[in-house]
Write a sequence for this structure.
């Protein structure tokens, strides 16, 4: 290993902390396991999908916290695993949809109670016409980021459409559709002198 031999087996066994530390430092210096490959890697190559995921997580966290629910969200992926926060959000965006008698409030010791909360979330999501094919409450309990983000996207979209439906007076009493929103957005973009995105 190209290490200097100033330490005997007896020194190691006797436990001279300074000698052992020096020996370990020398081993690390010689064989640290770090690559000396100086190949240039661009910043874009170093970025993983975690960057995109963290942006989405931040967006949903800020949105949930803006709703004024009782529980503050610090980390979406961890905080939704027991189902309680999503039940609070669902009750906020679709009042009366949550059966609170069947919900378990944190701290939840038994794992099956978390699954029950999350199963109720899935049932409510299906009632709200969310696309939840092959999604179970246990997926949320296990912290499946992709499925959590997909559910949150649909929940946020539902909330925004509900807000727009409440603004019917601006649309002569008719319900707002995705096409209406796209038309409005393109009109706004066009008024700034840019090309439409639709």
């Amino acid at each position: 290993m190209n290490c200097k031999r100033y330490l005997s087996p007896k020194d190691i066994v006797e436990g001279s902390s300074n000698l052992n530390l020096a020996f370990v430092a020398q081993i690390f210096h010689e064989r640290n396991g770090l690559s000396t490959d100086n190949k240039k890697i661009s910043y874009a190559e170093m970025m993983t999908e975690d960057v995109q995921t963290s942006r989405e997580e931040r967006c949903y966290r800020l949105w949930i916290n803006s709703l004024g629910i009782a529980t503050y969200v610090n980390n979406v992926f961890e905080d939704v695993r027991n189902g309680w926060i999503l039940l609070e959000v669902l009750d906020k965006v679709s009042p009366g949809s949550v059966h609170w008698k069947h919900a378990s409030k944190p701290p939840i010791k038994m794992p099956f109670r978390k699954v029950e909360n999350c199963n109720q979330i899935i049932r409510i999501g299906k009632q709200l016409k969310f696309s939840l094919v092959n999604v179970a409450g246990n997926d949320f309990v296990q912290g499946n980021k992709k499925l959590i983000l997909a559910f949150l996207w649909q929940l946020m979209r539902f909330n925004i459409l509900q807000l727009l439906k409440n603004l019917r007076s601006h649309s002569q009493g008719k319900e707002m559709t995705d096409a209406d929103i796209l038309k409005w957005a393109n009109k706004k973009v066009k008024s700034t002198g840019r090309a439409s995105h639709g």
